[in-house]
Amino acid sequence: MNAPLLSAAEDVVWLRAGEALAASARREAGALAHRLGMSADRVARIELAATEAATNLLRHADDGSLILRVSRAADGAALEILALDTGPGIPDIDAALRDGHSGGGTLGIGLGAISRLSDDFDVHSLDGRGTLVLARFWAPAAAGDVGSRSARAAARHVAGLTRPISGETVCGDAWAARADLAETPGLSGERPPGRVTAMMCDGLGHGPLAARASERARQVFQNSTRTGLRDILQEIHLALRGTRGAAVCLVSADFAARRVEACGAGNVSAFVVDGQRRTALISLPGIVGSHLPSLRVFDAPLPPGATVVVHSDGLKDRWAPGDFPGLFTRQPIMIAGQILGQAGVRRDDAGIVVITTPAS
């Protein structure tokens, strides 16, 4: 029987662009790296990458944020630095990665340095709208290796991101996911996920009371032994009694059967993206923890290479796949970051979880 591979972001720090961004980024990144048991050398590399990413934001973006995120799986963890901006974009990413190239009269070593320092690196830019840069650093696994095969497999297929409403330090949205590993190993020898089940929870309102409801929902989801979405949502409903309640959507992507199921109550949006098409998955009206409707599970086809996107109403739901050329071939954290950055609103908590499926 497959052991579930759990994945959730438990530590997220959002830093808005400002005069003290570089110093704050270095300090916060170093603290998270120490918490993950990184060596002194890796802590120094992470601090340097965070400083370079912050400096790039200040020099080249109109506005932006630096996100420091710890992504955890059952047998591994990683620290991720995401530099998300609104600005002119990068017209030639290959040129921008070469040392000596600069769009702002500087030495032009920022992106190239970040790429060399990190274990995993990616950048996606939208002309005239902004850029997202990812640098990932794997923590030592229990066996002493950096990261783990299953944790890396999870990072390729599921990721989520939350952002608190302006003025708050805690977010009332939360996400979680678990992946059952396939029975047959892939060509690399690792067992990729065969099914990924994810939760997006939006605690009513915002602030600590909303965060309390969402965190409780996440704990129940991660600890549940149920497999049916309706049963899991019923468990969450019972656990959220006495809290202010939440909107919750559960989705389960079966990679072998090429189907996705969804079960939800409240204002959480879920979509299947296949090329330029976006198909909505239904969530019923209601409040989990208070007024739960008669639950139904809806399903839809999940073509090879399709992407499942689930987000709270802290993101406008009018975005379209064509707004993000080249994005949906990227890893899930890149998709989550760009959609949140472009569709997120500052007057509410925002949360998004993304599942990407194998292309064949």
Give a quick precis of the structure.
This protein has helices spanning 21-35, 40-60, 93-96, 110-117, 149-157, 208-223, 229-239, 332-343, and strands at 4-16, 63-73, 76-86, 120-126, 130-138, 158-163, 173-181, 193-203, 246-254, 259-265, 268-274, 277-281, 298-301, 307-312, 350-356. It has 360 residues and is an alpha+beta fold. Keywords: ATP-binding, Nucleotide-binding.
What features would you describe in this structure?
This is ATP-binding SpoIIE family protein phosphatase. It comes from Streptomyces cremeus. The longest helix is centred in the N-terminal third of the chain and has 21 residues, at 40-60. The chain has a ten-stranded antiparallel β-sheet, with helices on both faces. A five-stranded antiparallel β-sheet has the order 6-15-14-11-12. With 360 residues, it is of the alpha+beta class. It has helices at 21-35, 40-60, 93-96, 110-117, 149-157, 208-223, 229-239, 332-343, and strands at 4-16, 63-73, 76-86, 120-126, 130-138, 158-163, 173-181, 193-203, 246-254, 259-265, 268-274, 277-281, 298-301, 307-312, 350-356. Helix 2 runs antiparallel to helix 4 (110-117). The protein folds into two domains: 4-138, Histidine kinase-like ATPase, C-terminal domain (Heat Shock Protein 90); 156-356, 4-Layer Sandwich (Phosphatase 2c, domain 1), CATH 3.60.40.10. Helices cover 27% and strands 34% of the residues. It is built from eight helices and 15 strands.
